[in-house]
Design goal:
78% of the residues lie in helices and 0% in strands. It has 193 residues and is an all-alpha fold.
């Protein structure tokens, strides 16, 4: 066997190990919260030795950061017709929540502990605020408006994807969009009250 083939096989095993660790970490952080999740439990769930977790991620903080790394890939609201930005955001977020288990895990950890809360605050600061700036008529109000948008979206996510409140789970996506889009639109673009 050539060195190149052996290197390729090792790289594939390494990638598979990383994926297994991250999957186990997301599940464990979501189930136990940041403080109660342990490297040993995550390694056991991934079917590997705890030293491998440390090798790839250094420590629990590094593992948590990698497990809940989130790029919301928010739309460029400045490129959309102004009256459609609320609808675009609700539709986008529903897609993110329904197609990305990382967001649900992050929300579970975010409501249960400081590490998750800090991660959620970082996402708000680094990703949601810049999008709100694109359409907000009053630059001084951007932080307040972004927080109001986040409160609606996180409230929906908490009731629909984490707590799984039956009426929230049963709502069709289009109905959720119809209810929330005008609220987000107002938060982002209405004149200051």
């Amino acid at each position: 066997m050539s060195d190149t083939a052996a290197d390729t096989r090792r790289a594939r095993r390494s990638d598979a190990t990383r994926v297994a660790i991250l999957d186990a970490a997301r599940e464990r952080f979501a189930a136990d919260g940041y403080d109660r999740a342990t490297i040993r439990a995550i390694a056991r769930d991934a079917g590997i030795d705890p030293s491998m977790v440390m090798r790839y991620y250094g420590n629990k903080e590094g593992l948590f950061a990698a497990a809940v790394a989130v790029d919301l890939q928010l739309p460029d609201l400045s490129a959309l017709p102004r009256p459609t930005v609320g609808r675009a955001l609700v539709t986008h977020f529903l897609g993110v929540w329904e197609e990305n288990e990382v967001m649900t895990a992050l929300l579970r950890v975010g409501v249960a502990g400081q590490a998750g809360a800090e991660r959620m605050q970082g996402i708000l600061r680094d990703q949601v605020l810049p999008v709100a700036r694109q359409v907000c008529p009053d630059p001084e109000q951007v932080p307040a408006r972004a927080v109001l948008v986040a409160s609606q979206l996180l409230g929906l996510a908490l009731t629909r994807y984490v707590l799984r409140v039956p009426p929230a789970v049963a709502l069709p996506r289009e109905e959720i969009v119809a209810w929330l889009a005008p609220t987000l639109q107002r938060y982002l673009t209405a004149p200051r009250p």
